[in-house]
Structure formats: structure tokens, C-alpha cells
Amino acid sequence: MSNGVTHKAFSIARISAISSNTFLELVRQKVFSFMILFAALGIGASFVASSWQFQEQFQVLKDVSLGAMSVFSWLLATLATAIVIPKDIEERTLYTILAKPVSRLEYLLGKLFGVLSLLVVGIGLMSALFALVLYARGQIALAEAIREYPAGAELEAALAQIKATAFDARLVPAILIIFTKVAVCASLTLMISSFSTSWIFTVMISTVVYIIGHVQPIAREYWLTQTPIGVTPSPLLKNFLGFTAVIFPDFQMFNVVDEIVVGNAVPVSMFLESFGMGFGYVFVFTLVGYIFFSNREL
Amino acid sequence: MSTPAISIKNLTKVFPIPFRREKVVAVDDLSLVVEPGQVYGLLGPNGSGKSTTMKIVLGLVAPTAGETEIFGCDSTRVESREQVGFLPENPYFYKFLTGLETLEFYGKLCGLRGKPLNDRAKELLHLVRLENAADRRIGGYSKGMLQRIGLAQALIQEPRLLVLDEPTAGVDPAGSREIRDLILDFKGRGLTVLLCSHLLEQVQEICDRVGILHQGRLIREGRLDELISIENQTELIFENASPALIAEIRAKAAAGGARVVDERQPQQNLERFFLDVTGGPK
Q1: Does the distance separating the beta carbons of A100 and B88 come in below 8 Å?
Q2: Which one of B51, B61, B80, B110 would you mutate to disrupt binding with A, by most A Cβ within 10 Å of its Cβ?
Q3: Are B12 and B27 contacting, i.e. CB atoms less than 8 angstroms apart?
């Protein structure tokens, strides 16, 4: 070869070059503007709930913040992923990239990791803001308790309860589960984008699958449990339910976040199951996306 | 005999039309060879199959039948692109990157890193005369500058083959001349160039060999001078020839059985005139 570098069939360096470029491209499109809205929501929720009991305050704050984090990161994952490939095709930068010794798998992984980096930074920033608001509200609650209770065992108990309610260590895995869920959404959108010719179509289909992914476990549960005892569900219904379960990801498994918010105990195995299933979906969607993309005429 | 830079054998590409039984034959049983060091012009009207052929050579489109090789390596294999630099028609690069960052990005895709990459990028910026715009965002580049940075990115890994699709499309005469001079410079350095262009005058100026495609088929192919020369005619251009001398030559020609087909005052071409009056490249 001309520059003395031996060609590697699969190169982390090439993937990294594409992913860092994708990350930079998305950042320069001012995608983080939504942070202002997120901050407003978090601070707003903390003020609205300021007159309530501290348990309710933290409950509302966690509910609103984690909910907003989930929605914003889903929007970011879907919209950012939907535009990256069509934009490269439209502006012909894809031709100049694939005319270099870059395989389509490397290109696709580079784009996916670029979006995932963006999500890591986005969720990281939202988490930092969330932690800041939570800390500030916690300090206020502690100060109020010191004013309210005389020194002694009662005050100690109140302070301990506030600390336990405000700084729940399980929020960290909850945030990681939000990331896993949006990583699934990003890989799903990338898979659709690998054969779609329009980013609007990609966003629409991805959104529909997202909704079905939330609804289909509930529907499956309902149909199967509503069948009268002693009567087996029809084979057609079973096949249909099996088909939807295979095709559409089960987004209900990420609802473990809701359990954390309301303070319910969540076994570690449930977290691990959510992470494992999530990254399994990411792998499958990326693989299917690659199969489509490798056969695509550019 | 050396390995051809490009070898195309019985290449056919058929595009199905969605929801219809008809198919479009974009390339029909095309065979051609581009030897190392040649500047090969692939000509043809719109829809003749030039771009499809180029995309197949670059592995962007899969052939329906036939084979294409780059320096003996199957062009469907990713490693064949180690040897190729490509400039698409009307290229757009990432607007948020500067000229230097653009070259570094493409260099990284070719396995270059660190100082050698930085040095190579700067060398190319000098070659295409964009050193002063190295730190400017691509979004602010003119059409001619975009084409030149496109040429630089195509050359980043020191390829042995350059594939250029309409490299001067939409560029003003001065920019067009600069790009032509660069291509001639590449030719001088021993690079092989496959050039697709509608600008026949430009092709005539720089290509050694041409192939003409029409409706996906190669209808003529050969050395440019052989294809366009008129074998039974000779052209002489005199400076300061007096009317008497011209008359004498005419008489001698007639006596020798030759016929004077045309007699006129040579003109410089419009491009040269334009470049002279606007102070463009010599």
C-alpha cells in the first residue's frame, strides 16, 4: 500500500475517527439546547413542591427529572440518529468516506458510537443538573429540619430520613437504565435508517416501534390472562403474540426506573436483566442494520 | 507487463425499477483497461453510465455481472481502496471542520496518525494552495476551494489512482485552470487518473486515452491523438509569413497534388483571453 500502513479488516481507529466526527457534528448543531428546558423543569418542579412534605418534594423532583431525562434523551437518540446517515448521503460525504478503505460496518458503528457518545454526554449533563437541584433541595430540607426540631434524637432521626430520601444511591443504576433504553432506541433508529431513504420516515417508524414496544407486553399479558381457565389461547393469537414479542423490543422491562422513583426495592438481578436485554437488542439491531446497509446501493 | 491500474471485464449493472417489471441497464457489458500512469477520460452524455461505472470501481455499487479490479485487487474488497483517491462531483465536506481538520479526518480513515498525518495534511494544503485557508471552516469555502480541498483529501494516503468526477464542474475559468494544472502535475508524478467530464476541451487537453460511453455501452475507445487526428491532413502555422510566401506555398501545394482545405488566422481560445485580462494563472 502507498503510505506504508497495513490494511486492517476491522479498525477501532477508523471507527473512532467517524464517531468523534459524528459527535462533533451533532454538538455543533446545538442539540444540547434542550438542557435549558431540562434545567427549567427540574428547578420549576423543586419550587412547585417546596410547600409539600419533604418526602413528596423529593418524590416529585425525582419523578419529573428522571421522566424529563428519559423523554429528552429518547428525542435526542431518535432525531440525532435519524439524520446522520441521510445527511451524509445527501451531501455526498458518504461517498468520500466509503471510497477510503473503510468498511460499511465500521462506518455504521462509527455513527452509532458517535450518537451514543452524545447520549452519554447529554445524560451526564442532565444527571449533574439533577444532582445539583437534588443537593440544593436536600440542604434546604435539612436546614428546615434543624429549625423545626430541637436538638436530640428526634432531630437526628429527621435528618437521617431526609438524607436517605434525598440521596438514594439507586438513582445511579436508574440513570444507567435510561441510557440503556435510549441506546436501544438509537440502534433501532440506525437500523431503520440503514434502508430508509427519508429521515422523516425513519423517525416515524422508530416512534411507532417505540410505542408498540411499550404497549405490546401489556397487550400480551392482557390477552393471555383473559383467556378463560381451561381454554388454551388460539394458535393464531399465540403466533401473533410471539411474532410481536420477537420483532418489537419490550420497553416495559426498563420500567424498573419507576420502581426506584417510588422507593420500592429492586433486586440486582432485575437491573442486570434490563442491561443485558438492552445491550442484546443493541447488538441485534446493529447487526440487522449492517445487513441492510451492506446491500444498499449508494 | 504491469498490472493495470483499473481493469473492467464484461461489467453489467441493471437497476430494477421499484413496483414495475422494467429494469434500467445502466452499464452493458463494459470492458476496459486503464494502464498505470495514464490519464483516462471517460466521456458520455448524462445517463450514459459513467457515474455508475465509477461507483462500481469504488465499491459503492455492486455489479450485476462482470469484474472490476484496482491494481489487481477485486474492487469489491475494502483494501482495494487503499490505492484510490476519489473526488465526487460537487463534493460537500463537513462544514463544521476546517480545511486542516478535514484532511486529518480523511487521513485517520486511511490509518495515518500524529505528526506524519499533520505533515501530510499541511503538504497537501500547500500543494492545492490552501495554506491560508487551513484554519477556516469549510462552510466558508468557495466552489473552487471546495474542489481543491476535495483533491487534497483524495490524495491524503498517497494513492496510486485518482478517480475524479467532473472535477471542474461549476468552477470559474481561473479555478478550472488551476485544477487542470494540478491534474497535469499528478500525471507528471506518475499517478493514474480516471477522469469523468463533460468538458471535452479539458479532456482533450489532459487525457492520454478516452472511452466514450453511450447508453451503457463503450462505443469508442483508444488513444486520444489517434481517435481525433485526421490522417490525410497536415497543419502548419507560420509567424510573420508574407502574402507572397503564402501564395508560393499555395502554388507548390497545388503542383504537388495537395489541396488547401482551410486558411485562417489562428485565435487564442476564450479561456486564455479571459485569464490574461483577469490576471489568472498563466
Answers
A1: no
A2: B110
A3: yes
Question: Which pLDDT score, from 0 to 100, does residue A150 have?
Answer: 83
Which residues in chain B have Cβ-Cβ distances shorter than 8 Å to A196? Answer: none
Whether this prediction's pTM lies above 0.90 is answered by: no
What mean pLDDT value characterizes chain A? Answer: 85
Question: Hey, is the C-beta of A92 within 8 angstroms of any chain B C-beta?
Answer: yes
Helices (H), chain B: 50-57, 99-109, 114-127, 143-154, 173-188, 200-206, 224-228, 243-255, 270-278
Q: Compute CA A58 distance to the chain's CA centroid, rounded to the nearest angstrom.
A: 22
Question: Which has the closest alpha carbon to B64: B31, B29, B32?
Answer: B29
Residue A169: pLDDT above 90?
A: no
pLDDT 10s digits, B35-71: 999 999 999 888 889 989 999 999 999 999 999 999 9
Whether the Cβ atoms of residue B16 and residue B78 lie closer than 8 Å to each other: no
Question: Residue A286: is its pLDDT beyond 60?
Answer: yes
Q: Which of B221, B110, B216 is nearest to B158 (CA)?
A: B110
**B111 vs A5, A25, A103: nearest CB:** A5
Radius of gyration over every alpha carbon of chain A, rounded to an integer in angstroms:
23
CA atoms within 13 A on the CB side of A163: 6
- Is A11 touching B (CB cutoff 8 A)? yes
Residue-wise pLDDT for A239-260, tens only, equals: 777 777 777 888 888 887 777 7
At residue A85, the pLDDT reads 93
Average pLDDT, chain B: 89
Helix, strand, or coil here: A176? helix
Which of B187, B178, B170 has its CA nearest to residue B129? B178
- Judge contact between B82 and A100, C-beta under 8 A: no
Q: How far is A9 from A4, CA to CA, in rounded Å?
A: 16
Which residue on chain B is closest to A5 by alpha carbon? B111
- B70 residue type, one letter: I
Closest chain B residue to A23, measured at CA: B96
The reply to whether residue B62 touches residue A297, judged by beta carbons under 8 angstroms, is yes
Instruction: Inspect the interface and report whether the beta carbons of A100 and B94 lie closer than 8 Å.
Output: no
C-alpha cell at A102: 473503510
Q: Could you give the ipTM of this predicted complex?
A: 0.84
